[in-house]
Amino acid sequence: MKLYLGENIRKLRRENDMTQDQLAARLGVTYQSVSRWENGTAYPDMELLPPLAQLFRVSIDTLLGMPEEEKLERSRKMINDFCKATYETPTDFEKLKSMLAEIRRDGFNVPMWRIWLETNDSVRNSKEMLPEFRLLADMILKDDPQDSTTIEAMTVMEDDQHIGNFLKKYSYDIDLLHDNLLRRRYRARGEWDKYEKLKQYRLAELIDILLSESFSDTRKGELSDNTAANKFKLDLLHSFCGETPTAEHPIAPKGEVDFFAQSRLDLGIARACYLGALGDKENALAALEDTVGYLEKVMTVTKTGKISFGSPFIRDITAEAYEFWATPSNNPTEPKERCVCMEYIHGNVTTSSCIYPSNTLYPLTAEHGWEWFDAIRNEPRYKACVERVKRLVVTKE
Predict the structure, then answer these.
(1) Of 158, 234, 377, 380, which has the highest C-beta tally within 10 A?
(2) Do 221 and 368 lie in a common domain?
(3) Among 313, 214, 221, which residue's Cα sits nearest to residue 258?
(4) Max Cα–Cα distance, the chain, nearest Å
(5) Tens of pLDDT along 359-397?
């Protein structure tokens, strides 16, 4: 890799109206050393690179003149190492602070979102790391004040003393939201095609929220508390998609893979679980088989392609489905699993879900916490479903 360190030091020194003597004095070296650096006959010691970069207010990569691809690969490695280090025990907070400081010095880069998603929860929500994460968020939001991943992460992580000021700075009144303003514009101007498309994005968002939200008392966690809510959501999904459930296909009557696949799988497992707890074996097994059959269809996706929302109310917009390899728990120390992602992009916001077969397998094989399946666990049809899901779980290091 060719570096342009000497040329960059000369260029940055002149941009900052500094002489070689002045730069040498700031760094505690001789002006002859600075001259040799700039002429390319010597390089500064490694420990001088951070203060040099700080002095010129650039990243170390910019100082070195590292090519963009190599900078991106270096950033990926730094973030990957940091995320993995957050899972080490015992937690070395000083090491993590130092790693995060180096990532900040490196500057904003594409993989930065992984820090918010793949860091161990106990580290991300620790008081020790909060000041460091604030500095990282400030850096990102200074470049992009509407970076939704960072805003959502800090909304969860920030303490009670500072959350008010954070939200005041980065959230907006609902009347001033981008889409609400555009809807008013399109109505007033009679631009109904644009209005309809925007309305469908909003409808997709609201249905997705309703299907994933809990309408029971989440403090209790009892099966009976969730039954009515799950039935409501399954009925809502069927009605929204214009589906009529049958005895053979109570979960996915059409069998089409659409954007709401994850909700359908979750509701299918919940339905089979509830019916199993009631002792209604036949309908419980039918729900489970339909759910597993639907999962098998989802996992046939290999190439990126368009998918619909499966509803007569959303005809003008589509989503994408594609194969992806990642860890279900976002723990970078675990093997990656093949999953299928569903997503659509509206403006600066990406709405997505990733379907991992292991998430369906877990409740079917867990020793504790899913005792509601005990009434049907020994049924041949149940065991066959478990084996079918196991075959869909594919991992790699």
Answers:
(1) 234
(2) yes
(3) 313
(4) 86
(5) 999 999 987 878 889 999 999 999 999 999 999 999 998
Q: Rounded to whole angstroms, how far apart are CA atoms 77 and 64?
A: 17
- Quick check: 373 and 363 in contact, CB under 8 A? yes
Tokens of 323: 């194969």
Structural domain that includes position 330: 203-396
Amino acid in the structure at residue 224: S
Burial classification of residue 121, based on how many CB atoms lie within 10 Å of its CB (0-12 exposed, 13-18 middle, 19 or more buried): exposed
| pLDDT reported for residue 1 | 41
Count structural domains, the chain.
3
Is 316 contained in some domain? yes
Helix axes 380-392, 281-298, angle to 10 degrees: 20
Q: Report which DSSP code applies to 396.
A: E
Task: Judge if the upstream peptide bond of residue 250 is cis by omega within 30 degrees of 0.
Answer: no
Please give the model's pTM, rounded to 2 decimal places.
Answer: 0.73
Instruction: Name residue, tokens 């793949």.
Output: 118
Candidates 338, 243, 240; CA nearest to 290 is 243
Domain check: are 36 and 72 in the same one? no
Residue type, 37: W
What CA dihedral angle connects 68, 73, 77 and 83, to 10 degrees? 80
Contact status, residue 7 vs residue 39, Cβ threshold 8 Å:
no
- Looking at residue 391, its amino acid is R
